[in-house]
Amino acid sequence: xxxxxxxxxxxxxxxxxxxxxxxxxxxxxxxxVAKLMIGCLFAVSLDLLVGYAGLVxxxxxxxxxxxxxxxxxxxxxxGLLSAFVTLPLxxxxxxxxxxxxxxxxxxxxxxxxxxxxxxFTQMLYYLFGESPALGGxxxxxxxxxxxLAILGRTVVDLGDPTxxxxxxxxxxxxxxxxxxxxxxxxxxxxxxxxxxxxxxMRTLGYRTRRYKLGAFVLGGxxxxxxxxxxxxxxxxxxxxxxxxxxxxxxxxxxxxGGKGTLYGPAIGAALLALLEHFAERATEHWNAxxxxxxxxxxxxxxxxVAGLLEGHRA
Amino acid sequence: xxxxxxxxxxxNGVEYGLLLFLVASGLTLIFGVLGVLNFAHGxxxxxxxxxxxxxxxxxxxxxxxxxxxxxxxxxxGFVVERLAISRLxxxxxxxxxxxxxxLVLLFNELQRALFGNDVHGVPTPRALAFGLPLGxxxxxxxYRAFTCVACLAVAAATRHVLLRTRFGMRVxxxxxxxxxxxxxxxxxxxxxxxLxxxxxxxxxxxxxxxxxLTTAYPGMxxxxxxxxxxxxxxxxxxxxxxxxxGALLVGLADTLGKVLFPGVSSAMVYAVMAAxxxxxxxxxxGQPAEAR
Lengths: 314, 292
Description:
The complex is a heterodimer.
Chain A: H1 5-20, H2 27-53, H3 60-77, H4 83-105, H5 110-130, E1 140-141, E2 147-150, E3 153-157, H6 161-184, H7 186-196, H8 198-203, H9 208-234, E4 236-237, H10 244-257, H11 263-282, H12 286-300, H13 304-309
Antiparallel strand pairs in A: 1-4, 2-3
Chain B: H1 3-34, H2 41-59, H3 62-83, H4 93-115, E1 131-134, E2 138-141, H5 142-164, H6 166-176, H7 178-183, H8 188-214, H9 220-235, H10 240-260, H11 265-279
Antiparallel strand pairs in B: 1-2
């Protein structure tokens, strides 16, 4: 599980390059890259479940969406603007939701798990899309973005695109380091072992369901962080964020990049964002381009882009 | 609520459930025998509905749409299986999910390119455009009754083929142990091709039959796909019998949910699923994990 040397250098360089983007002063690209980094964060957090614990979850976008909606409710309804308050609340809410969903869905495994998590996502999608109290199909605007104030003075205003960019960059780097540490720690080792042979781990006395639930909650909390940042960046939430396309797309991202590598899904998110951006310009039917690309990767690059970088090591 | 109105809703629930069965039976068989989680199954339903619109407009008859559309979609299923799905046998569920997700994107764009984003109505066949009286005030559309009968006939035929014919025997044997079936000299590849194509044709038939009731609209395949997944999970993956009862349960839960709990009707189906899974984690008729 060591990184190829070139990849490590590239990651450091990439992080530095991302930090320098706001200097360009181009508002479009700053926002584009900010969104791209949120996509990376989201995909990397799913990789903990898919690539390490072997849990193919289609509920990941549910936690993203729930956290974003809670931010909207706290900000619009209660007038809570301080990120000191809203960020922990939103992440805790996403984690709690993941605990509840995971507790139920982890009774199942394999394909059942895929389908049941899909159904949960879809349930939330309909719930938020159809009930006017929750914003309905139009979604909700967030009038005032979160900020950090010390002694009544606003120190950090996340409504400023550059500040939001910096916050997103920091979140991505911290999450990556955190997940990197986790998958190398005993907890992560146990998760990998469960993916490879769960009955054996159970025989060895590990309470495998608890470990999987732990991973599910951690992944859900980080998805919540991504949702919080997304809502902060755009000032807007809508039920499509729950939809199965969203869950499917982030799974595609993880596989496109290469599951079980952490950096692979980050590359996948970046590639997919760029592919979408340029295909969208070239043709009205850009979804077909994305579809064809996905099919090509499955057929010809079973281990994703990371598989290319790592050569033919198993 | 009056009794005839309740009866009307129950009948509509059964009718919806029977249509779902046509989609879900293919889904569950394709998973049970081929081991492939096919996200593109809903796309075949969607293509069926659009074919009903397109062929119906050209020929002026829904029967012609069935006669041309179903064999056409059988062929489409065959091509998809040969070109894409057959490369996935033995790969993990994740790759299958991804590839079929890519297919969904392609089929959706195909639909957009050919038919645009508009909703297309499909007329009810004139011979069936009357109501069956229910009580004094209500009437049940004859077309819905016809759909029920047609679906039941297809269900009975499917059951007959699976349980009483040589082909069905091979399919069931293939679901349990493909290597042994292969070793007995049976061409499993061809078996799988036919099975996948038949599932595709069934989903398309459901789409054609549903088109006069629901119209043909973008994204219709995904809605049906996800509800069909729920059906398959409730019934137990791989079980056609389970798909039948699961489809009826979901059809009734959905229709009655709309009447009894209008605000949260869409969530109703998933609540039923969660309840079933808490009671039996492998569905009503699912095999225990060790048997797979």
